[in-house]
Amino acid sequence: MAAEPQERRTALSSTVFGGLMVVAAILVIIDALALPDTGKGAAGPAAVPLALGVLLGVVGLALALRSSAALRTAATDQPLRQHAALRLAALVAALVAFALLLPVLGYVVTSAGLFVAAALLLGAPRGWQIVAHGWSLAAVVFVVFDRIIGLTLPAGPWGF
């Protein structure tokens, strides 16, 4: 069964986004290589950023190549999705709210709100599961980075 041709705007934006991911990967790798070597242990402070930079570059390159191939056969007569500009503006507002509220409410609360808002705006089915997933994801990231790795994240008035 043949797949439907991708919409032209989607293929073009995915190609551009893949290219931006590759540029970001190069910047991450350059910054990681500039980190000083502490000489303590096998993995220095650049190990994780280097791995993430390489992974970001590979995924970005794959996305750009796949999307540019899809661009050749993309359909041009499909209209924009309903309320696309409104959803984009709401996502930007959610990111701004996250940045403004992070020092006040802490990482877990603001991240959970951002995850839930993004999921709803991107079309996830509504229900309590989205809220549970948002809180769980925020809590796991907080525990891993703040408690296990030791990178301090804003705790907020509740200590998390």
UniProtKB/TrEMBL annotation:
> Cross-referenced InterPro entries, in alphabetical order?
DUF1468
DUF1468 domain location, by residue? Answer: 18-154
Pfam families per the UniProt record, alphabetical:
TctB
Is the keyword Transmembrane helix in the record?
yes
Name the domain of life this protein comes from: Bacteria
Transmembrane helix recorded as keyword: yes
Keywords for the protein's UniProt record, in alphabetical order: Membrane, Transmembrane, Transmembrane helix
> Which spans are transmembrane here?
12-34, 46-67, 88-121
Supply the name of the protein. Answer: Tripartite tricarboxylate transporter TctB family protein
